[in-house]
Design brief:
Elements: H1 6-30, H2 35-38, H3 52-61, H4 79-112, H5 118-140, H6 149-158, H7 164-183, H8 187-209
Helix pairs in contact: 1-4, 1-5, 4-5, 4-6, 4-8, 5-8
């Protein structure tokens, strides 16, 4: 990684993590669970949501995780639906933010290409990293390993228990994720998944902006 890129990566990572965790808390709260609000997770302050290892992985490897939002699914009227929607809210928020980033890049490319000043060049690069990091965060969090969101989706859909994976592999979850990140085992499948999402979203942007 070029350390000059940190002026783009750090703010992009903080925004991506904040949006991801805020979405979890907000959806759970709207479903009737007061726990995220009581824990201070209905906040746009990044430092309320950061997990040190997950943030470092996001900055270094372009995929990572944040501090899980504590939820109490027994407050939900429809528990299975509530857990499913709350778990997917984070990755969904990341994909929405990624599309916004790509759309912003498309606007700059269409209307300012060739005569963009320093600010627009910085903004274009920031939006690029913002889109890439959000896609990486969204895709990675769908993996069914605790504490990732995919573990709750898998647990509630397959075993009707959102904590099923945590009960069985929780002690090893962070260790497994760290090994996957450091060894690069996920590099190829993550790159394929991220590139597919980027191509799909950018195709929509090109269709809308007609370029």
């Amino acid at each position: 990684m070029n350390y000059n890129d940190l002026i783009y990566i750090v703010p992009a990572a903080l925004l991506a993590i904040t949006g991801h965790e805020f979405a979890h808390g907000y959806v759970s709260w709207k479903m009737g669970d007061p726990t995220p609000k009581e824990d201070g997770r209905l906040s746009l302050n990044p430092f309320h949501h950061l997990d040190v290892m997950g943030t470092l992985c996001l900055i270094l490897f372009h995929f990572g995780w944040a501090k899980p939002v504590r939820i109490n699914s027994w407050y939900y009227k429809d528990r299975k639906k509530g857990v499913f929607c709350t778990a997917l809210a984070g990755p969904a928020a990341n994909f929405i933010m990624a599309f916004i980033g790509l759309f912003g890049m498309g606007l700059i490319y269409k209307f300012a290409a060739g005569h963009a000043g320093n600010f627009l060049v910085y903004l274009f690069n920031l939006l690029n990293y913002f889109a890439v990091l959000n896609i990486g965060l969204g895709v990675f969090n769908l993996i069914p390993i605790p504490p990732l969101d995919g573990s709750k989706v898998f647990g509630i859909l397959v075993h009707d228990d959102e904590n099923y994976m945590e009960k069985h592999v929780n002690r090893y979850g962070y260790f497994v994720l760290a090994i996957l990140a450091v060894t690069g085992i996920l590099s190829i499948p993550m790159s394929l998944a991220q590139n597919a999402v980027v191509r799909f979203m950018y195709g929509i942007v090109r269709f809308i902006l007609r370029f």
